Amino acid sequence: MTPPPAARARLDWLDGVKGLAILWIAFFHFYDTWSNGRLPGPLEHDYWRLFLARCAPETPLATLDCVGRGALNAVALVGYHAVGVFLLMSGFGLTLSLERRGGAPAGWRDWYRRRLLRLYPMYWTAHLLLLVSPLLELPEPVDHRFLLSLLGDRFWPVDTIFYYLNPAWWYFGTLIQLYLVFPLLHRTLRRVGPGAFLAGSAALTLAVRFVLLEVLHANGNWVQGAFAGSRLFEFAAGMALAVWLQRDPAGTARRLFSPPALAAGVALYGLGLASHATLWSYCATDGLLSAGLFLLLARLARLGERLPAVAAALARLGVLSYGFYLVHQPYVIHFGIRLRSLGLADFLVVASGVLVLIALGSMALERAVDRVVDRLGGVGGGRRASAPG
Question: What is the reported pTM?
Fold first, then answer.
């Protein structure tokens, strides 16, 4: 059943969360390329001392300017944390759609067909665009890995394909793995309930990450998402949230935007940052960061509704974030390299314009691909993939 307009309106902030997250990720890729390691990272020990020493302010006003630049640098260089929010939103979107329909009415085979028709055509289009774009220089040769990537393999061999050609595409491989086990996850969620399901997913994710990190000493790409079990908690958190929101929309929304939820978001994100300190605590890092950041971005998206034009633009980008995710990184790397001679202020002006153009182009491209797929594949109004994702 299609939810009434009032119910849909109450969920507009979710698209705003995706819009904020994908902009943050894209700006991180742009800023990281432009800065080119010239500035310390916010997770480095004694970050502020290092940054202020490099900035070398000589007056109180200059010190204030350096603090502002340091804050911007810190925020920009942790933009990759927002990928976990998209994992959460992917689990949320898939589960909410099923909960509203009472399951997969045409069976799981049809569900897979519809989901793959939403994922792969735009993904293949992004590969083609990478080959034919006159602006880009391919960072690696087009070889057998290109065919593996077209199939959705971004995890084996993990050391040569995880970041192949377009590093952002590693997320696609993680998403494909989670889609493959989604029916099992959904049946488990229905059988044990969202609370137990989330707790069990958290325990399993911690165990997987511990084995990869402490026992096998595996390539870090496996922990980042080459093996989806290492990111299961974030996906499962979105699934559990969808059930809670479907069962009690008003009560769940009220709790999400309450002062305790804001405090929890700050605390979880802070714990996630602190958990980088040791290998064993890193087992919990991505889950803590993603859960905390989701609560914070949700509050920010809700506050943004006070500016209707801005909120509408973010929500529209959130709805069409999949295409932006797939195509943005090669372009921001291309322009980021060429803008390295600019100062921060000039870079921010030019980068903002470039990101707007990439967003508009990718949104138009995604709409065009969706129209072709709907005509040829009969997918019709299926829920879009969530980008990072």
Answer: 0.93
